[in-house]
Amino acid sequence: MRTARSRTAHPVLWAGCAALTAGAVLCVLGWYGVSGERFAERQVPYLASCTVPGAALIVAGAVLLAQGRGAAAAARAEELYGLLVAAGPAGSGEAEPPVTAAVAVSAELAMVPGGTLWHRADCPLVSGKPEAVPVDSGVLAGGELRPCPICEPPGPGREG
Q1: Backbone phi and psi for residue 119, each to the nearest 5 degrees, phi listed first
Q2: d(Cα 60, Cα 65) in Å, to the nearest integer?
Q3: What pLDDT digit, counting tens, does each position of 59-98 carry?
Q4: How many whole angstroms separate alpha carbon 124 and alpha carbon 138?
Q5: Alpha-carbon distance 108 to 102, whole Å?
Q6: Sign of dihedral through CA atoms 122, 126, 131, 137?
Q7: Which of 23, 3, 28 is closest to 84 using CA atoms?
Q8: Which one of 73, 81, 92, 112 has the lowest number of neighbouring Cβ atoms within 10 Å?
Q9: What does the alpha-carbon distance between residue 149 and residue 96 come to, in Å, rounded to a whole number?
Q10: How many CB atoms lie within 10 A of CB 134?
């Protein structure tokens, strides 16, 4: 669903394009003037009157374009947020809080040889893998493995 919004470009973008164009024209005029003069003292007026202001206009135009695009993106984000808020929650009535189910609940621990984590046996990262083996308490006590951040298994010093 699209909303009716202005199709005209942001004025800052137009100003940036105009400054870039004017700067490029001044730089070309300055280069043309400098290239036609043999002596350096005759080249300085072209540098001072065309090339330096042209370079400044190019920088200003680039800054205006960057700022204008940021403002346009922020306006679009605000528009999308307004549409999201106006749509309201899906379904009828009040929104219910999401039900979070535990990823894994098994008390048995498993690991994959060569891995760096220990898991609950029903963790999605090890369940169904034929190479998964039960964890030895000596390996846990040795500190070679870390608990899985997905299934958060119990281990030494942790309640299960």
Answers
A1: -135, 165
A2: 9
A3: 999 998 888 888 778 788 888 888 888 776 665 555 555 5
A4: 24
A5: 15
A6: negative
A7: 3
A8: 92
A9: 27
A10: 10
**Other Cβ atoms closer than 10 A to 132:** 18
CA distance 124 to 19: 57
Quick check: 60 and 19 in contact, CB under 8 A? yes
Nearest alpha-carbon partner for 139 in 103, 113, 101: 113
Q: How do residues 132-150 score in pLDDT, each as one tens digit?
A: 888 877 777 777 888 888 8
Q: Can you give the three-state secondary structure of 19-60, one letter per residue? A: HHHHHHHHHHHHHHHHHCCCCHHHHHHHHHHHHHHHHHHHHH
Distance CA 21, CA 54 (A): 9
Contact 100, 94 (CB under 8 A): no
Whether residue 47 contacts residue 64, with contact meaning beta carbons closer than 8 Å, is answered with no
Cα distance between residue 147 and residue 118, in whole Å = 5
> Which two structure tokens, joined as six digits, stand for 73?
């993106």
Distance CA 96, CA 80 (A): 23
- Look up residue 127 and give its DSSP letter: T
This prediction has a pTM of 0.42
